[in-house]
Amino acid sequence: MSQDSKTNHNLFTIALFSGTLFVSASLMFVLQPLFGKLLLPLLGGSPAVWNTCMVFYQSILFLGYLYAHTLSTRCRQHQQIFLHIAIIALSLLALPVALPENTIPPTDSNPTFWLCWTLFLAIGLPFFVLSTTAPLIQKWFSKIGHPSSDDPYFLYAASNTGSLIALLSYPFLLEPSIGLANQQTDWSIGYWLLCLLIAACGLLLWKRQQPNAVLETQTPIVDKLTWSTKLHWLALAFVPSSLLLGLTNFISTDIASVPLLWIIPLTVYLLSFIIVFSHWNDAVHPWMVKLQPLVLVPFIAYAFVNPADLPYWVYLILHILAFFFAVMVCHGELAKDRPPTQHLTSFYLIMSFAGMLGGMFNTFVAPFIFNGIYEYPLMIVAALLLRPGAVNTRLHWQLIVPVVLLSIGLILYANVNDLLQHFDNIALSLIALSIMVYFLRNQTVSYALTIGVIMFLALSLHGLSSHTLYQERSFFGVMAVRESVLTDENNQPETYHELFHGTTKHGAQRLPEPLAKIPLTYYSQPGPMGQLFTTFDATNANWNIGLVGLGAGALACYAKPSQQWTLYEIDPLVIDIAKNTDYFTYLSRCLPNPNMRVGDARLALEKEPDQHFDLLVMDAFSSDAVPTHLLTKEALALYFKKLKPNGILALHITNRHLALKKVLSIHAEQDHFAALIQEFKAPEAMPLVVDTDWVVMAKQPETLEKLHLSTMGNWQTMPLYFDMRPWTDDFTNIVKIWK
Predict the structure, then answer these.
(1) b or e along 196-231 (b: 16 or more beta carbons within 10 Å of the residue's beta carbon)?
(2) Is the pLDDT of residue 739 over 90?
(3) In sequence order, what are the residues at sequence separation of 6 or more whose Cβ sits closer than 8 angstroms to the Cβ of residue 236?
(4) Distance from C-alpha of 90 to C-alpha of 126, rounded to nearest angstrom
(5) How many other CB atoms are there within 10 angstroms of residue 179's CB atom?
(6) pLDDT in tens, 435-450
(7) What's the CA gap between 481 and 471, in Å, rounded?
(8) I want to staple 29 with a disulfide (CB 3.0 to 4.6 A). Which of 166, 450, 523, 736 is the partner?
């Protein structure tokens, strides 16, 4: 073979193996959101559903890596090819990917096992094949005699590039332009292409294998892996995995509940793999280690100690930068410590196992042991403990600074009578310490633990300053009840209670007896809901009312004794808080014995009789993270099926980032519903009355005529939009409704 032919053949080989890994990773990252959307109308938007799916994916990924390790170490090369092709052929029986026919989740028990079984039946084998591709194809590449076969880890960059492109393409390209049915078909075609590419890689390996090839385990083992090496790999992979989920949860809870915000940390996470497993890592990694302490100074000072009144995107940048350097250092160490190809599959097996453990820790352990997103700062400290650096001081000497600092902080917090009066001085002291700790950067243990102590003291201080009466965490996020102060009509200070989900306020109540039954915030009497109940005051005495989304229970104080109210709430913790009279008394005062339904609203409403409600209030949209399955064409058809012919549907669409009125306007236009909107601006003189947007819909315009003609509020006909498709269970497009 001539030199040019040999060069071309080598390039073709790299293109084939890189392309196979690229396509496999792309298909994996498209399948996860695709199948999640298939499940959404069936199981609702419960985070427990998504958590279960993620653990399933990570578990199958681990099993795929275990299979690749076992296959490559226990079977001869031609046996590997035959067996893997057989499993691929078997997986083709699952195409096209779809939910099993007539599958119905259990209604009287936890659906976790049902969900795992459904996932296994529908996509278990294809996802398993995708999971095996990265380690197995790299292992095959190491055996074909290519000039780069001795270090095939650069192919991992191709795999993560595919993951990254698929991640960004799905919400911005695929979802807005292709419905679910077509996505299923196109994905299946892509899977057939992957099968052909894997077969081509196997054929190339077959041609290059030695006629007397023996089992790899029969060859002398060089550089046997030690347990310390394996545990080091495990820690370097576990911490970034947990940190990724912790940061995603933290920024959507404590910074801003912005749709698609979760993409940014995952993009950074995948990008780190692309960089560290490329040929750039040797030059980049030392700089990451040097720059990380510099980035942490403003991060600790402004993101934890003294968050000023800055836009949320400034905080987001600080957190993303700190996360980027943390995962780059950990993954850089992981790539630097990668073993010879003999242990390639063991290396990836430990990485996948660590990733699965990270997911399980954040999903199943942290919510039960922490009442806040505390696993995030915990993993920041863990990442710093994994920093490389010369340890010039013995361990017990490195513990002196953090132990002394923690002791001083606890003594101050315990003995200063009014700690908040000294808030600024304490914050300035912690900022100074976060600057000074930079000089400990080469003392790994002292540096990491001192930063941990600073973050702990800062979080404790902010917990005191927020006057948090109660805080608890569930699958649905962190709920907190806080006590605040306003100036009443007589210029006297008055305490009141607020309910928060992360940073989103879900209700408030004034405490004095004459004021405690007055609905506030989004449900105020001057606002759209107050106008609606007042307008129909003469005719609504016997209404049957359904309320989706409980909050603090403020809407219950519009109830009349002769009305029937049914309340729907997905989070049992919200119900406990609303019923606890130490925090809120709306329910106990106004609706002490409501019909309560726990679960996803759409699933719960399916069980109600048709033409049951006079008024159905959908208040599931007060957070900026929107359950899209509650706004589809099929969802609205369900709501009107449960409403009486002259019934009214009221939807709360207040949102900082999304123009939800576009979705509802198109539904109203296509299905010929009458629809009015009010974008209410709160008067400045009214305390705890806030700006809020509501839409009311009915089958006949006459039903809403009285409200339209009312002089109490500015109800307008819905504007028309022609630049987007209607949302259905098959198609949604978040990007198109960004404000």
Answers:
(1) ebbeebbebbeeebeeeeeebeeeeeeeeeeeebbe
(2) no
(3) 330, 331, 333, 334, 337, 354, 386
(4) 9
(5) 14
(6) 888 888 888 888 999 9
(7) 6
(8) 166
> For residues 54 and 469, what is the distance between their CA atoms, to the nearest angstrom?
33
Q: Which of 420, 404, 515, 520 is nearest to 467 (CA)?
A: 420
Give the position of tokens 């109660």. Answer: 470
Residues 237-243: what's their mean pLDDT? 94
Strand order in the sheet with 504-510: 468-474, 477-487, 493-501, 504-510
- State the Cα–Cα distance between residues 670 and 673, nearest whole angstrom: 8
Query: 496's torsion region: left (phi>0), alpha (psi -120 to 50) or beta?
Result: beta
With 0-12 / 13-18 / 19 or more C-beta atoms within 10 angstroms meaning exposed / middle / buried, residue 292 is buried
Query: Do the Cβ atoms of 650 and 692 come closer than 8 Å?
Result: no
Say how far apart CA 632 and CA 667 lie, in whole Å. 8
DSSP code at position 689: B
Q: Calculate the dihedral angle through the C-alpha atoms of 417, 418, 420, 424, rounding to the nearest 10 degrees.
A: -80
Rounded CA separation 322/320 (Å): 5
Average pLDDT along the chain: 86
Placement of tokens 């076969």 in the chain: 149
Q: Which of the 8 DSSP states describes residue 650? A: E
Break the chain into its structural domains and give their ranges. Answer: 7-210, 395-465, 499-737
Q: Are 141 and 20 in contact (CB under 8 A)?
A: no
Give me the pLDDT at residue 257, please: 54
Is residue 230 within 8 A of residue 39, CB to CB? The reply is: no
Residue 175 identity (one-letter amino acid)? E
Confidence of residue 681 (pLDDT cuts 50, 70, 90): very high
Contact call for residues 443 and 392 (beta carbons, < 8 A): yes
- Reported as a pLDDT band with limits 50, 70 and 90, residue 50 is low
Specify the pLDDT at position 129: 95
Q: Please report, for residues 485, 494, 593, the alpha-carbon distance to residue 490 in angstroms, rounded to integers and kept in the order given.
A: 14, 10, 35
Confidence (pTM): 0.83
- Tens digit of each residue's pLDDT (9 = 90 or more) over 373-421: 889 999 999 999 999 875 566 777 888 888 888 888 888 777 655 666 6
Pairing mode, if any, of strands 674-680 and 493-501? unpaired
Token pair 């992360």 is found at 502
Query: Residue 593's closest CA among 559, 624, 620?
Result: 559
Spell 9-38 as b/e; 16+ CB within 10 A means b: eeeebbebbbbbbbbbbbbbbbbbbbbebb
CA 528 remoteness from chain centre: 32
Domain boundaries 499-737, corresponding CATH code? 3.40.50.150
Rg of the chain over Cα atoms, rounded to whole angstroms, equals 29
Total residue length of the chain: 739
Residue pair 653/626 in contact (Cβ under 8 Å)? The answer is: no
CATH of domain 7-210: 1.20.1250.20
**CA 83-89-95 angle, 5° bins:** 145
Confidence of residue 69 (pLDDT cuts 50, 70, 90): very high
Tell which wins on pLDDT, 460 or 66. Answer: 66
> In the numeric block, which tokens belong to residue 701?
């315009």
Query: Do 31 and 130 touch, CB atoms closer than 8 A?
Result: yes
